[in-house]
Amino acid sequence: MKKRPVDVVVVSDVHLGTYASRAREFLTYLKSIAPRLLVLNGDIIDGWQFSKHYFPATHMAAIQEILALLSNGTRVIYITGNHDELLRRYCDLQIGNFKLTDKALIEINGKMTWIFHGDVFDHTTRGQAKFWTKLGSNGYASLLAFNGMVNRLMKIMGKKKLSLSKKIMEHFHKRMVNIDAFEMMIAELAIDKKFDNVICGHIHQPRKRKIITESGSVTYLNSGDWVEHMTALEYRDDDWYIYTYDVATMKETELLSSPPQPEVMTNEIAIYLHALQQATI
Hints:
The longest helix has 30 residues, at 127-156. This protein has helices spanning 23-31, 57-71, 127-156, 164-176, 179-192; strands at 4-11, 33-41, 75-79, 93-95, 98-101, 104-108, 111-115, 197-200, 207-213, 216-222, 231-236, 239-244, 269-272. The strands form two sheets. The protein has a seven-stranded mixed sheet with strand order 4-5-3-2-1-11-12, with helices on one face. Strands 9-10-8-7-6-13 form a six-stranded mixed sheet, with helices on one face. Helix 3 (127-156) runs antiparallel to helix 4. By secondary structure, it is an alpha/beta fold. The model is unreliable at 127-137 and 274-280 (pLDDT under 50). The termini are far apart. It is 29% helix and 26% strand. It folds into two domains: 4-120 and 177-279, 4-Layer Sandwich (Purple Acid Phosphatase, chain A, domain 2), CATH 3.60.21; 123-163, no CATH class. It is built from five helices and 13 strands.
């Protein structure tokens, strides 16, 4: 598979280590790109549902592919989320081209882009609500396993696949998370801080939206997830785009390969990871 050169790629909510994760598709996507900067924007490995009894080869291969990209010149920023919150105690760890943090600010061609997972703006991840959210997350994983069995039967009968899990997740977001309020809250804070773009994950809703208020404007972006939508954000050709994985056109690759070395990072992309006091949530 010929790799596409991409300046920046942002992915989130892969949930490796769970039945929900579309790890094979995620692996195929990683093998199809040669990014100069890869941002893993939270919930990459699911610590809430992690079990030593379930971590398939494709999930491990996805991690190995990230390490292969790193060793071949791609800079990798891992931003922690709520499902991998155990890593937050190690924030500001940096080893070579790898950085672990809870937020990042990057400058691309003179425009400032603020990136963080977004769970701090979700009331369901705090206090007593967090317990019920974790419980619901485990139930959602069970539903995905059941959904998989249903779809195997549907395939045998020549019927179209059903996405019960997607309908449940959409219903949850409508009832528990006001997405418009979530986006506006983040956008208003980014405008106040004079940023040009703000990128989140967490709510599994891919989005690119220009938000204008009395105080200014900002482009809000959400990288979606690799559970249902299989999306990523890509910065190429001087703009941000939502990439959507197409099962019909993407050919799954072998688990092991050696990616070509991407071009060296230039001054067009500057990364600010230490002095983020002005971006404190």
